[in-house]
């Protein structure tokens, strides 16, 4: 990892290169139409294990939508055949009523204001309203996307949400080994959790808040001790 500043060139290369938040592909029309990757904000440069996805992570409080990212949104308005969704960005995102697995004009999800959805950002541009869809782009199957029923949604830092999406992070596997749970993590700093008992749901929320870098950064041993005090 390294620190980058706005306008700085980033040496990101891959056959299936995907740029996340904080990076922009800049094309230079000099006859060769070459392109380069520039940082658009200050922060820590990160990449996936196979170096196919790159992004800049900082302590931003507001989510900036980026294509292909998974988010948790709240339906705030019905708009024609679709919905407007609050995803924590500067402006609401649009979600077409047909952007669900198996949806047709006669068979569309009956979402209401206040409902939660787990969606994927299909379009993100600084001059356009973000667009969402609730299916996998390749398979057109739900693959976990869609309405989130029941459970509880909590807000955490953007850094924490990305940590929870890392398969190597200890927290969710640790909790899942102690009691059954369902979880959906959005990179927009929102986490949806569902457990069989209310006390288990409360324990999940408290643990996420405690492990969050903005909330103390508790380690694995600290979480185990905390769960022991709860009898879990």
Q: Could you explain how this protein is built, in words?
A:
This protein has four helices and 16 strands. It is of the alpha+beta class and 232 residues long. The protein has a five-stranded mixed barrel. It has a four-stranded mixed sheet with strand order 1-6-7-3, with no helix packed on it. The protein has a three-stranded antiparallel sheet with strand order 2-5-4, with no helix packed on it. A hairpin with a 2-residue loop joins strand 11 (116-125) and strand 12 (128-134). The chain starts with a strand and ends with a helix. The mean pLDDT is 88.
Topology (elements, then pairings):
Layout: E1 2-4, E2 9-10, E3 18-19, E4 23-28, E5 34-39, E6 43-47, E7 53-57, E8 70-79, E9 82-86, E10 93-100, E11 116-125, E12 128-134, E13 146-148, E14 152-155, H1 158-165, H2 171-176, E15 181-186, E16 190-195, H3 198-211, H4 220-229
Parallel strand pairs: 3-7, 10-12
Antiparallel strand pairs: 1-6, 2-5, 4-5, 6-7, 8-9, 8-11, 9-10, 11-12, 11-13, 14-16, 15-16
Question: Could you write a compact summary of the structure shown?
Answer:
Pfam families: KH_6, Rrp40_N, RRP40_S1. This protein is of the alpha+beta class and 232 residues long.
């Amino acid at each position: 990892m390294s620190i980058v500043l706005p306008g700085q060139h980033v040496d990101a290369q891959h056959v299936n290169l995907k740029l996340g938040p904080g990076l922009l592909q800049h094309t230079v029309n000099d006859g060769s139409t070459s392109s380069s990757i520039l940082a658009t904000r200050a922060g820590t440069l990160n990449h996936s294990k196979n170096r196919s996805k790159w992004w800049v992570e900082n302590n931003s409080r507001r989510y900036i939508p980026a294509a292909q990212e998974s988010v948790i949104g709240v339906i705030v308005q019905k708009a024609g055949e679709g919905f407007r969704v609050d995803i924590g960005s500067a402006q609401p995102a649009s979600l077409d009523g047909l952007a669900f697995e198996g949806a047709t004009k006669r068979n569309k999800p009956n979402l209401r204001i206040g409902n939660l959805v787990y969606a994927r950002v299909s379009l993100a541009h600084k001059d356009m309203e973000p667009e969402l869809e609730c299916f996998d782009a390749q398979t057109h199957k739900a693959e976990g996307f869609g309405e989130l029923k029941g459970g509880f949604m909590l807000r955490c830092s953007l850094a924490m949400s990305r940590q929870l999406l890392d398969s190597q992070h200890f927290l969710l596997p640790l909790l899942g080994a102690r009691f059954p749970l369902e979880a959906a993590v959005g990179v927009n700093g929102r986490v949806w959790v569902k457990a069989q008992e209310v006390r288990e749901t409360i324990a999940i929320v408290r643990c996420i808040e405690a492990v969050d870098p903005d909330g103390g950064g508790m380690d694995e041993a600290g979480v185990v001790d905390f769960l022991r005090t709860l009898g879990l």
